[in-house]
What does this fold into?
Amino acid sequence: MADDPDPDVSDADERTPCPLPTTPAMPGSDPVRRLVHVEVTDAARRLRPATVAITAGRPPGGPDAPLNEPVAFASAYHAGGPIGYARDGNRSWSALEAAIGALEGGSALAFASGMAAIAAVLDTLPLGARVVAPAAGYSGTRVLLRDTGPAGRWDPVFLDVTDTDAVLAAIDGAALLWLESPTNPLNGIVDLPAVIAGAHERGVLVAVDNTYATPLLQRPLDLGADIVVHSVTKLLSGHSDVVLGATVTRDESRCDALRRHRSSYGAIPGPMAAYLALRGLRSRAVRLERAQASAGVLAERLAAHDDVTRVRYPGLAGDPGAARAAAQMDGPGTMVAFEVRGGAPAAEAVAKATRVIVHATSLGGIESTMERRARWAEDAGIPASLLRLSVGCEDVEDLWADLERALRVGMAAASDGP
Ligand SMILES: Cc1ncc(COP(=O)(O)O)c(C=O)c1O
It folds into this structure.
């Protein structure tokens, strides 16, 4: 993240731009988007991401105007306006989309869930399209590509996306390279500039699931990606109370295709969820700052713990992804994966023994959560004792005391046997 303390934006040309907003990239293509006022001034273009997260997507100002877009509960609209019908637009979505789009530097669309956004992107591919995707990435995407879609809908190839040579060797003839970085749950870091450039040389589209990093840490469109997707459910909204997804692109026709898909399939978010997601997004930067600092402390301490056999966190000096993360991210993030002695029974006992950290799937909330990923059948290939810890904003010493105690209790319970 930019660390220049000078708050004056007038001479900040050299800083990482965070383009605001989507309107210039999408001239006239979305009348609903124009309902939400986003000021595109030179100064606004130079705002840092933490400020953009707080300011983008506000409605027009004026005496007694609400600061943020209120929840637009409506299924019918007076005729003659740009929305027309509730499946095609909603002011609460538009506000959220303006903010996510401004942060990622493209045009965002809100979907009913991260999976709805992922499915929409994959559905815009031709029948039988080859999709190269992570072998050890988010299981929902893998399951959709491999099992849920009708036979022959896609031709998926799963591989280690952190292995640049393997990716480049596999993508000839593919329609899409699907990436996650960091990967969920192994925290693998993809050399995004290298594989994106290689994919484009071969005429292959690139989509990046940016859920783990969020645009506060990584902007894949700036690194050349064609499409970004998010499970907004997670770190962007950040309070474990919303299910919502998003796509972001800079290509007008692709964005229109995704919008049509959303309308036709009805994969739309509720206005309340959109409102809550934007409210959560407003504080993403402060949540990140705190949780990331704690994640670094916990990763170091876990790495030194006798019962921990491996820690995967790109902020650790020895981590295989550390150099790439430092080159393409503004921080290593808030997700820590670690393996414990004693295999699955020990890891399961540790996960169940925490008191502050919630034993739960999902991630990215203000509250810390942890689970053994391989407890899910779809993640059977993940190391059996790997615990995925989503670090929240509690006091780091309380988190460490909880982890230390859970390791002690869990190890003892596992060695006693069932
Ligand atoms: C990296 C990643 N992408 C996508 C999804 C799917 O998002 P949702 O649960 O909002 O459908 C998840 C959910 O865990 C995820 O972790």
Remarks:
- The pocket of pyridoxal-5'-phosphate is lined by residues 113-115, 138, 140, 180, 184, 209, 211, 231, 233, 243, 245 (CB under 6 Å).
- The chain has a mean pLDDT of 91.
- The longest helix spans residues 396-416.
- The domain at 284-412 is CATH 3.90.1150.10 (Aspartate Aminotransferase, domain 1).
